[in-house]
Write a structure and sequence with these properties.
Elements lengths: L2 E7 L3 E7 L2 H4 L3 H7 L3 H4 L3 E8 L3 H12 L5 H10 L11 E4 L3 H11 L3 E2 L2 H12 L1 H4 L7 H19 L4 H32 L5 H4 L3 H11 L10 H8 L2 H12 L8 H35 L1 H7 L1 H11 L2 H6 L2 H5 L4 H10 L13 H5 L5 H15 L6 H19 L6 H48 L11 H16 L15 H35 L1 H7 L1 H11 L2 H6 L2 H5 L4 H10 L13 H5 L5 H15 L6 H19 L6 H48 L11 H16 L11 H13 L23 H11 L10
Parallel strand pairs: 1-4, 4-5
Antiparallel strand pairs: 1-2, 2-3
Helix pairs in contact: 2-7, 4-9, 10-12, 10-15, 10-17, 12-13, 12-15, 13-14, 15-16, 15-17, 15-26, 16-17, 16-22, 16-23, 22-23, 23-24, 26-27, 26-28, 27-28, 27-33, 27-34, 33-34, 34-35
Family: Belongs to the NOP5/NOP56 family.
Protein name: Nucleolar protein 56
InterPro entries: Nop56/Nop58 (IPR045056), NOP58/56_N (IPR012974), Nop_C (IPR042239), Nop_dom (IPR002687), Nop_dom_sf (IPR036070), NOSIC (IPR012976)
């Protein structure tokens, strides 16, 4: 075996090493991998032969660019010829050169006939050299190599970004990605506007079919109760049809939709406005894409359309990559999954990919779609490789003729005739351009001569000195020229710090417009979140306090309503949102999911991996209780319980019993109810005193004015008695409609008993171990009686 040399390209220079001690560690890759970390052992394997440092940072950047592209520079060639053993002519070299990249190895062999190799064994040696490079090279100070690597890395990345060949294509790629995303978002948002506003005005969906017009109408109408003939002109301007506008007004008068609160209407109209703004921005973005495609790939845009052409460029990565693709690859571009699946299953390969969205494929009959796709891909491949705009129109004419040939049998023109006519048109355009260019310099020269003669006459008449001579401005002109040359030589931006590429004014306008839309959507998202928080605090305050407004709203949305969610057992609530995973596990007899939407709670994220399932089960239990209670106190207490259970799983701190927490919550609720009763009782007394005063004044006033014939005033006492009887009856009436209510006396006795009843140490469950729904303070006595009875049962701590 001959000698093995290793070439290593570092940030500071080229290094050449010889692998001399391979016999000590063995010639397999595993032995080298084990010896790399130990410098004493690896130092016996490789020895430094030569080192050639780079002259400057610019030289290092040029060498790095050449190596990354697989090219050998003159400096590297001279270094290898001097450092490696010389080979006599006609004899094979008795050594090999190990390199990191096979491309540069093949180029070195073509130029210098030095045999190169790049295998796993060589790469492990290069990895060890890279690890201990600063210690293998004498004269390198600590930190010098890191500084060189940092500087070269910045320069290399900056040059790659600034001088990117595909920088123009990036604008098209970003625009088509954003356009497709906007199509999906605007469609989904429009459907959300329809669903949201249909609760208020359901008849509008059948009258207005267009999504954009529906959002505009919803934003204009607002509350349907305020819609009248005064808004007819505005509706006509939006719809463009007087009959439809009148139909909308008539439908609003007999609408069966429910009323919306002012807060809900504000949010519906705000959301409709955002949908309209996105739809308008989508139109502007499409115009921008059309303008960019006409500059970058006019032939492809003329042949297959701007949108489909931009999708092909985006999928290929750049216009250059698309031009390199053969027509067979371009035909199925975008259908890679179907192709590999067909190759794996030995089925039929796909006939078309992204090219299917072209209007030509849609117009072709079913039996000719594959042939049409193949022909169109052929013409697209030609269109990407030509720069003249004439070819795009001619190629489109060819595709139209081929389509007529498949459908009607009309023979198309030959390809050579079409290309010949296209070449003649291009030649005529070039000659016209040459004539225009030759005519422009002559006109410019005549204009310059006239301007110079005028300027010399003007200077001679004005710039006269005391001795009668005119000042000569020639030295000043020279200085100006020198300054202008220096200014041109000076870069506009600091090139050392500027790593970005330039953008055209049109690109900058669209980038800033898109950034503004993102900011507007972010601000609207904040407002929508505040609206959701307000609605959740009214509808499900306990669930919001326990698990958060967003997760709680997702659970309600998935269940269909808060009532449906309250009917769900805790085991169902735990996996709500993971139905697909559940049915798949039941079908394959695998592990069922541990959590669904409840996984997004912060409690599940804070729990350890082994306790996530237990935490999800416990949290679902508490959520089931929270959906069935109306007092806001229970939400905070349930959250405290979950926090304590989390500490118990992580730290082993014993939590409080469920009975103690529920007892404390019940006491707080009872105190709140008593305070409310005191406030309610205080209000009638103050009202009575005010009424007495007002009545006394009114009686005096009536006695003085409303005197009857016999001189007696009217007495209001019977009216007072009636009011007292009504208030007593209303107080005796229970809050809930109880079928077997005993009457006024029994009701007052029950109220007295509830005040004397002491809270028992029992859980908040019923006989069938389901949570008891607490509706009002009237039910506390029966509720406590059930708890006292159940506390003697077999499982009093079911919710612990």
């Amino acid at each position: 075996m001959g000698r093995l040399y290793i070439l290593h390209e570092s940030a500071s220079g080229y290094g050449l090493f010889i692998a001399s001690g391979i016999d000590e560690i063995g010639q397999n890759t595993e032995a080298v991998r084990n010896s790399v970390t130990d410098l004493n052992r690896f130092g016996k394997v490789v020895e430094l032969v030569a080192f050639s440092p780079f002259e400057s940072a610019l030289d290092a950047l040029n060498q790095c660019n050449a190596v990354s592209e697989g090219q050998m520079t003159d400096e590297l060639r001279n270094f290898l010829e001097i450092s490696l053993p010389k080979v006599k002519e006609g004899k094979k070299p008795k050594f090999k050169l190990g390199v990191s990249d096979p491309k540069i190895g093949s180029h070195i062999f073509e130029e210098t006939k030095i045999p190169c190799e790049s295998n796993e064994f060589d790469l492990e040696l290069i990895r060890g050299i890279r690890l201990h490079f600063d210690k293998l090279i004498e004269g390198l100070k600590p930190g010098d190599l890191e500084k060189a690597q940092l500087g070269l890395g910045h320069s290399y990345s900056r040059a790659k970004v600034k001088f990117n060949v595909n920088r123009v294509d990036n604008m098209v790629i970003q625009a088509i990605f954003l356009l497709d995303t906007l199509d999906k978002d605007v469609n989904s948002f429009s459907m959300r506007v329809r669903e949201w506003y249909s609760w208020h005005f359901p008849e509008l969906v059948k009258i207005v079919n267009d999504n954009y017009l529906y959002a505009k109408i919803a934003q204009y109408i607002g509350d349907k109760a305020e819609l009248s003939e005064d808004k007819l002109e505005g509706l006509i301007d939006i719809l463009g049809d007087e009959d439809k506008a009148k139909e909308v007004i008539e439908a609003s008068k007999a609408s069966m939709g429910q009323g919306l609160s002012p807060l809900d209407l504000i949010n519906v109209r705000m959301f409709a406005q955002k949908v309209m703004d996105l739809a308008e921005y989508r139109k502007k973005l499409y115009d921008y894409l059309v303008a960019k495609m006409s500059d970058i790939a006019p032939n492809l845009a003329a042949l297959i359309g701007e949108v489909v052409g931009a999708r092909l460029i985006s999928h290929a990565g750049s216009l250059t990559n698309l031009a390199k693709c053969p027509s067979s690859t371009l035909q199925i571009l975008g259908a890679e999954k179907a192709l590999f699946r067909a190759l794996k299953t030995k089925g039929n390969t796909p006939k078309y990919g992204l090219i299917f969205h072209s209007s030509f494929i849609g117009r072709a009959s079913a039996k000719n779609k594959g042939r049409m796709a193949r022909y169109l891909a052929n013409k697209c491949s030609i269109a990407t490789q030509s720069s003249s705009t004439t070819f795009g129109d001619k190629l489109r004419e060819q595709v139209e003729e081929r389509l007529d040939f498949y459908d009607k049998g009309v023979a198309p023109r030959k390809n050579i005739d079409v290309m010949k006519s296209a070449m003649e048109i291009v030649a005529n355009e070039d000659t016209e351009m040459d004539v225009d260019k030759s005519a422009e310099p002559e006109s410019k020269k005549s204009k310059k001569k006239k301007s110079k003669s005028k300027s010399t006459e003007h200077d001679a008449s004005e710039n006269v000195v005391a001795d009668g001579d005119a000042e000569e401005p020639k030295p000043e002109k020279k200085k100006k020229k020198k300054r202008s040359i220096e200014e041109e030589a000076q870069p506009i931006d600091n090139v050392a710090d500027d790593a970005g590429q330039g953008l055209s004014p049109l690109d900058l306008i669209n980038v800033r417009m898109f950034a503004q839309k993102v900011m507007d959507l972010a601000e609207y998202r904040k407002k929508l979140y505040d609206y959701l928080v307000a609605k959740m605090s009214d509808i499900a305050p306990n669930l919001a306090a326990l698990i958060g407004e967003v997760v709680g709203a997702r659970l309600i949305s998935h269940a269909g309503s808060l009532t449906n969610l309250a009917k769900c057992p805790s085991s169902t609530l735990q996996i709500l949102g993971a139905e697909k995973a559940l049915f798949r596990a039941l079908k394959t007899k695998g592990n069922t999911p541990k959590y669904g939407l409840i996984f997004h709670s912060s409690f599940i994220g804070r729990a350890s991996a082994k306790n996530k399932g237990r935490m999800a089960r416990y949290l679902a239990n508490k959520c089931s209780i929270a959906t069935q209670s109306s007092s806001t106190t229970f939400g905070d207490k349930l959250r405290e319980q979950v926090e304590e259970r989390l500490d118990f799983y992580d730290k082993g701190v014993a939590p409080r019993k469920n009975i103690d927490v529920m007892k404390a919550a019940m006491e707080i609720v009872a105190n709140e109810d008593t305070e409310m009763d005191v406030d309610k009782s205080a209000e009638p007394e103050s009202k009575k005193s005010k009424k007495k005063k007002s009545k006394s004044k009114s009686t005096e006033h009536d006695a003085s004015e409303n005197v009857v014939a016999d001189g007696d005033a009217e007495e209001p006492k019977p009216e007072k008695k009636k009011k007292k009887k009504r208030s007593i009856e209303e107080e005796a009436q229970p809050i809930d409609n109880v079928a077997d209510d005993a009457g006024e006396d029994e009701g007052t006795e029950k109220k007295k008993k509830t005040k004397d009843v002491e809270m028992e140490d029992v859980p908040a469950v019923s006989e069938d171990h389901s949570p008891i729904k607490i509706t009002s303070s009237v039910r506390y006595s029966s509720y406590l009686g059930q708890l006292k009875h159940l506390s003697k049962g077999p499982n009093p701590h079911i919710y612990e």
